[in-house]
Amino acid sequence: MKVLHTSDWHVGKRLERYDRLDEHSAVIAEVADLAAAEAVDLVLHSGDLFDRPLPPVEALRLGLLGLVRLADAGRRPVVVVAGNHDSPDLFETLAPFLAPFGIHLVGRIKPPDDGGVIALATGSGTAHIACFPFLRAAQVVDFMASTDSWYGVYADRVRKVSESYATALAAAARPGDATFLVGHFMVGGVRVDTSAPRGERDLHIGQAYAATEAAVPASLDYVALGHIHAPQPVPGALVPAEYAGSLLQLDFGEAGETKRVVIVETSPGAPAAVRSVPLQAGRRLIRETGSWDELAGRSDLDAGFLDLTVTTTGPEPDLMDRARERFPLVVKVRAEYPRSISARRITTGRPWGELYTEYHAEAHAAPPEPALLALFEEIRVEVTDAAP
């Protein structure tokens, strides 16, 4: 059986003032063309289909039409689990309308015998798929308990859900069938560049949301995970398991990453063969440092979104205006020059969670408790999602 694994589309994601729907349209079309060229039997999408729980109409339309195209008029099953950016309610509402097209949306974690594990007929046999949407810490953590126990409680719950799915898959599968888990969670040890903002929400890739390799069942043909945008194997997995990564470079922490889809081929009695297919669509995100003359003279910076650090001898109030006149896709510009110790701290471009942690440490001589940091992030997300 041949499977295409994709993840973290984040349709509707903007890069500050820049809309990226055209890029999303191009890369989704590229994925659909790959599915046809590879003659895949099944598509697994491991979450964050949209960037917001209630996406704009244009983003909703683009994402759903992309799934319809992948499904090829119902000839190719498509399974999508909700990620932390997706709305479980929206997924569950849309599910019955998309099912006739061969598209299976799973918004919530469900018992194995009530939608948590599904069996689908494909052109190369039966696929049994465990569906593991994003699990929020608030659903499993006892906030009256000691904070020292929170991390272990979340990891243990993820492990138990995975184990129950693996048991159900083993009972359902017949010789020659293929077994999969498609999920949206982080396994500790993943590689994440935190030197600049990324498309993942900061607090959803921290220790409070880290599972262990025990959450990756060793009895399956393939485990398709989402949530981490840097393409990579799942750390510690005993079976083929991958983070497919995001479709586009979504923020400057993803600059330089080659985006991809994963093609998986299963054969009875043998480990699944896994290979990456790089994606070509979408603009590059570029971070560069240099003097104004050095940067302005580089034609290779014209086609990408830019995060520029310009070395100067002092403040230059017109720097952004000059940068926008020279570079059509500049996003961020900062001047770097010698400063006194008492100079105001730069906050532009830094994650909100990091800034709040720094503020709390200065104001209270201690970092915030995980519960307080999680509450801060939830409020920030609500305000961001409510913004026009």
Concise synopsis of the structure shown:
With 388 residues, the protein is α/β, with parallel strands linked by helices. The chain has 8 helices and 17 strands.
Commentary on this structure:
- The chain is of the alpha/beta class.
- It folds into two domains: 2-278, 4-Layer Sandwich (Purple Acid Phosphatase, chain A, domain 2), CATH 3.60.21; 285-386, no CATH class.
- It contains eight helices and 17 strands.
- The chain has a six-stranded mixed β-sheet with strand order 4-3-2-1-13-14. A six-stranded mixed β-sheet has the order 5-6-7-10-12-11, covered by helices on one side. A three-stranded parallel β-sheet has the order 15-16-17.
- β11 and β12 (241-243) form a beta hairpin.
- The longest helix has 23 residues, at 150-172.
- The chain starts with a strand and ends with a helix.
Strand residues, percent = 15-25%
N to C succession of SSEs: EHEHEHEEEHEEEEEEEEEHEHEHH
Number of domains: 2
The outline comes out as globular
**Helical content, roughly?**
25-40%
**N- and C-termini, Cα separation:** 44 Å
Query: CATH topology of the largest domain, anyone?
Result: Purple Acid Phosphatase, chain A, domain 2
Descriptive keywords:
single chain, 388 residues, alpha/beta, Purple Acid Phosphatase, chain A, domain 2, 2 domains, six-stranded mixed sheet, 8 helices, globular
